[in-house]
Amino acid sequence: MALNDGKISKQDSDALAEALLGLETIEEVKAFLDDLCTPSELRAFAERFKVARLLDAGDLSYREISERTGASTTTVTRVARFLREMPHQGYRRVLDKLKTK
Known about the structure:
The chain is globular, with a radius of gyration of 15 Å. The chain has helices at residues 10-21, 26-36, 39-57, 62-69, 73-84, 90-99, and strands spanning 3-4, 7-8. The protein contains six helices and two strands, in the order E-E-H-H-H-H-H-H. It folds into two domains: 7-36, no CATH class; 39-101.
C-alpha cells in the first residue's frame, strides 16, 4: 500500500475494505487475516476487540478489564475513548450489529 506521511491512501484503504466486504464466511476472513497480519498483530486486534466487548458490557472497571485481557490500562482507555467519543464509531457499529444477531 502506498504510504503518505505514515497514512495509507484512500484508494488503498478502500481496496482493503472492499476485500473484507467480499469475504463471506468466518473461515475466509480468518484465512485472509492469517495471510495479511502477523500473529502479534492478530493478537492485538483480538485483544482490543475483547476490551471493546467488555467495556460495552459495562460490568468491569478499566483495571479489571486490563487484568482479564492482558491489555494495558492505556489500551483499555484508548479503546474506551474510541468506543464513546470518536466520530468513526467502528467499534459501536460492530458491537451493535453483533447484538442483533
